[in-house]
Amino acid sequence: MRLEEERCWLEIDLEKLRRNAAIVEGLAGPGCTPIGVVKTNCYGLGAVEIARELAACGCRILSTADMAEALALRRAGIREPILLLGPAAPESVEAAIRENIILPVVDLEHALLLERAAAPCGRLRTHIKVDVGMNRLGIPVNGREEEAREDIRRVTALPHLTNEGLMTHISGMQDPALDHLNVEQLERFSAFGDFLAEIGICLPMHCESSMLFLSHPEYHQQFARLTSAYLGIEKGYEPLGARCVARLCTRVLQIKQVKKGDCIGYWMTYAAPRDMTVAVLGVGYGDGLVRGLTRGAHMLIRGRRVEVVGKLSMSFSVADITDVPDVRLGDEVTVFGEADGGGVSIREYAELYGGHPCEVIAMLKEHIPRVYLHPRPGAASKLPAGLG
Ligand SMILES: *Cc1c(COP(=O)(O)O)cnc(C)c1O
C-alpha cells in the first residue's frame, strides 16, 4: 500500500493502546481480570491486530460477539480463551471445545441443547448469562428470582458444561442524572449472586463494560468486559493518561477560490458568506461519515481547525481554509480522533449529530486502509514505507 495514493486512511496507534492497557490493568487491580472485547472487528479498528496487542500486554481472555469472529482470531494464531457474548448454536459446540471458546448459556433450554451437543465431545466451557433489566440476552431475573435460581441450579447440574462464570449486561445510562438506574441493575446483579450463593452456587461474576468500569470501581467483580477503555474513547479517563488510539486522516486534493454567494456542494445548500479559499478533501459519507453532518463539523489542517462547508459527497468533502493560507496540495488532514494539537475528538464528532463514539468508528468502511503505528519491536509491521 502506498499511502500517498490513498484518499483517506485510519491510523491506529498501538503505543497508545499499550498505554491504555496499562491504565486498565491498574484500575482493575489484582481481583479483577479485564476481558478484551474485540467484537465487530474491534469496532472496525481490526480485531486481530488489537487482540494480538492486548494479549501481548497481558490480557488473558478475549471476547467476540459470535463464533465466526472467534474462529477468525484462531486462524490468525491468537491462543487466548475467547468468551462469546451471544448464544451459539449447538452445531458450534464441537469447534468451541476444540478451540477453547467459552459459550454463554442464555436460558435453560439453550443449556440443554448445548449439553446434548457437548456430551459426545467433552466438556464445554460456559458462563451463565442473566438479565437484570436490559431485557436483552440472558435468563430473566427480575420478579422471578426463585425460578431463575432454579433454572441455574439445573444448568449447573449438567455434567458437560463447566459454568465458570455468571454474567449480565447493564443498560448503561450515559446521563449522570440517571446513574441511579445503573446502580439499580448493578445492585440487582450482585444481590442475585448472593441469592445463588445461598444454595452453594458461587460463580465468578462480571457485568461491567467500560463506562461502569471507570465510573463504578466499587462494583468491580472477578471480570470486566472492556473495549472503549482500551481504545481510549470512553469518557472521563483522559486525566489518567488514556488516549484515543484511532485517527481518521484524509488529504487535500485541490485548492480553489470561491466567490461570495457561490454555492458549494450538492443541492446548493451552502452559499459562501464571503470570498473564500476552500480545500477539496478525500473523505465522504461513502467512507462512513454522516452525510448531513456539516453544520459545526470541523477538521484539522496544519494545526488549525477548519469548517466543513456544503453537503458531504460520497468520497469528497470541502473545507473553508481561508484563514489557513499555508495549506498545500497533498497536506494531511485529521478528520477526527486524537490529533496532537486540538483535533476533533471522536466523542466530539459523535455529539455533533447525537451519535455514539463506538458508532462513529464502527461505521468506518472496510475499504479504508488501517495503518498500525508503533508496533512492538519484533512484531510483524503493517506500516507502509515512509510512515512511523
Ligand atoms: C461491546 C460489549 C462490551 C464492551 O463495551 P465497551 O463499553 O466498549 O467497553 C462489554 N459487554 C458486552 C456484552 C458488549 O456487547
UniProtKB/TrEMBL annotation:
SUPFAM superfamilies: Alanine racemase C-terminal domain-like (SSF50621), PLP-binding barrel (SSF51419). InterPro entries: Ala_racemase, Ala_racemase/Decarboxylase_C, Ala_racemase_C, Ala_racemase_N, PLP-binding_barrel. Its cofactor is pyridoxal 5'-phosphate. The modification N6-(pyridoxal phosphate)lysine is found at K39. The keyword GTP-binding does not apply. Its EC number is 5.1.1.1. One of its GO terms (molecular function) is pyridoxal phosphate binding. Residues 245-373 form the Alanine racemase C-terminal domain. GO terms for cellular component: cytosol. It comes from the Bacteria. Substrate binds at R136, M314. One of its GO terms (biological process) is alanine metabolic process. Keywords: Isomerase, Pyridoxal phosphate. The keyword Cytoplasm does not apply. This is Alanine racemase. The gene is alr.
